[in-house]
Amino acid sequence: MFFFFVGGVSQQVRQVLKSGAGRCISCGGRADLVEYEKVLKLFFVPVWRWPGKDPLMYCNNCELFFPPELSPPPTPSPRRRLPEESVPNLIRCRYCSREVDSEFRFCPYCGSAL
Question: Could you tell me which InterPro entries the record lists for this protein (predicted)?
Answer without folding.
Answer: Double_zinc_ribbon, Zinc_ribbon_15
